[in-house]
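Sample log: Flagellar assembly protein FliX.
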Amino acid sequence: MRITGQKPVSGVQGRGSKKRSGSAGDAFAPDMGEESAPMAATTNSGGIQSMDALLSLQEVDEEPERRRKATRHGHTLLDGLEAIQADLLGGAVSADRLEALAHQVSTQVESGDPEVDSILREVELRVKVELAKVGRFID
């Protein structure tokens, strides 16, 4: 579709052509009504609230990470025990595997949860017993 000519739009008036009624003194004035009581001063406690939020986030986020780390440590020890069991069934225990397991059991990890820590100590004890059976004694 092609537009060939432009027709001016008629009937539209601009702001200047608008008729004004009243005089300049009739400007808007709000109804003040009664005398209003002064408002109490407010204090800005946003800084304190944000600091509390940061501290609580730091406190909350640390525990699950410690628990995950302790869980990984326990799974690594159990996997090492399974590998030694497979080696024993095969007839020869790998010295490298024993060394790696001895190193893993020497580092203790705390989760912060007494039940998880108790289970970890039991797994570590079992690893030490199995290492002692094959001649690797750990303090």
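Observation: The two ends are 93 Å apart (CA to CA).
Observation: The chain has a mean pLDDT of 75.
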